[in-house]
Design goal:
Elements: H1 2-26, H2 38-51, H3 66-77, E1 85-86, E2 89-90, H4 113-126, E3 147-150, E4 161-167, E5 172-177, E6 182-187, E7 192-197, E8 202-207, E9 212-216, E10 228-235, E11 241-243, E12 249-252, E13 255-261, E14 270-275, E15 282-290, E16 293-300, E17 305-311, E18 320-325, E19 330-339, E20 342-351, E21 357-363, E22 372-377, E23 392-398, E24 404-411, E25 415-421, E26 430-435, E27 448-453, E28 459-462, E29 472-478, E30 487-492, E31 512-517
Helix pairs in contact: 2-4, 3-4
Length: about 525
Amino acid sequence: MRRLYLLVWGIFLLNGIFTFFYSCTNNSKQTEDGTPNGESIGQGKLLAEKYCQGCHMLPDPSLLDKKSWNDGVLPAMGPHLGIFAYGEKIYPAKRNDPNVSKSYYPSQQIISFTEWQNIIDYYTATAPDSLPHQQRKDSIKKDLQIFTAIQPRFKYPVPTTCFVRIDSTNHSIILCDANNKKIFRFNKDLELIDTLKVSGPVVDINFKKNEWLACNIGNINPNDAKLGNAEIIDFDKNKKMKLLPAPLFDNLGRPVEVAEVDLNKDGKPDYIVCEFGNLTGALSWMENVGNGKFQRHVLRSFPGAIKVYINDYNHDGLPDLWALFAQGEEGIFLFTNKGNGSFEQREVLRFPPIYGSSSFELTDLNNDGYPDIIYTCGDNADYSKVLKPYHGVYIFLNDGKNNFTQKYFFPINGCYKAIARDFDGDGNVDIATISFFADYKNQPEEGFVLLKNKGNFQFEPHTLAAGESGRWLTMDVGDLDGDGKPDIILGNFSVGPIMMKSAINWKENPPFVVLKNISK
């Protein structure tokens, strides 16, 4: 009898211990139907405000659907709080990646499992089941007549065009293909005239007087390896491209832009480098110390540096920098040059980390003498691969003191780049856009859109059939044929993550298409 009593008491005790342990480590407070209650959601909101904006702007649950939060974004954020596994889920982390510092992730949990579950409850319980569709005031019309599309006869299987540029001086086209690791040159008639093998995908080229400065990303896929470099492309006596044997500088983490400027006014060219990276990255400047040597100075040690503009906005004779960061802490930053290599940093625009910032331009749109900002967001290859209503083209106006207010928005799923020019010669600045993550199934016309400026920030969206003939990763504008009118080139990167399949097989189409300006 005593043995039976001890056995029953032991089972009761073990059951109590198990129940206590489970409730403390893997459960939040729930209602009878199993859904989180108000207390858990409220605690989760407070915890999110405390912990989820240490690295970036606090995202609102309404920005994503429940599934994207639960299966994509939150599992990616867990390791940053020291949580690498929760329940039956193993959270993705790069703790064993030799290119990521051992101290990148916390050595122990920052919050408890109960607190983590509260955060999960807050986002998954208050997020919508699905995101609303984009709402446009004006539909995109396929009636664009100021351009005619010209495709080259040159083709190869599965084009992965990662860079295009119109050389208006020499009336030629430069293109790089990521998979082939080759740079191609075409004349104004789109005939191939030169080819150069490179060590990795070139994603940016600056034209210098007798040579080119090429930005080699190293590996185009997300990674933290230091495989990128800045290299010089020279020309032989037959004006054929040749790569100098030694890079200008190397050991860069997925650089996407290199710009030349004498930052410290010592008479020697320095270089601004946007290292997009992945988990790590930076905006840096390479100080020219002479004899082909450079000293690296980090301006902002965050990943996602994607674009920089150089201008002396305060007219003190020193070049200042405007930079877009598109990873994690997304925003546009102004770096005011204080001299002697010193900069004052200010964040002029900030965006949620889910936006997927993709490009920006500085353009004075209201002719008040101050640069305004045209901004696009649409990168959709990370942890929430769903169409988003806030993707598109934005205009932010400058009040003269570099405070910016949104004036305009046109929704485009997966918008990747915008270039502002007066394409039709009416005196108003139009905006050409491309999308790499368009709604190809239902709205393939989003691939290329020209927003024609009708004045007073009223824009009409137009496109043409050729806008659907490629998956446009890159775009450039320039006068290809020397007639004084801006032409457009679109680069076809025919593979990659996609939510909506297209009826067109981009892999069989040419690597680029030229939209020749035929406006009067």
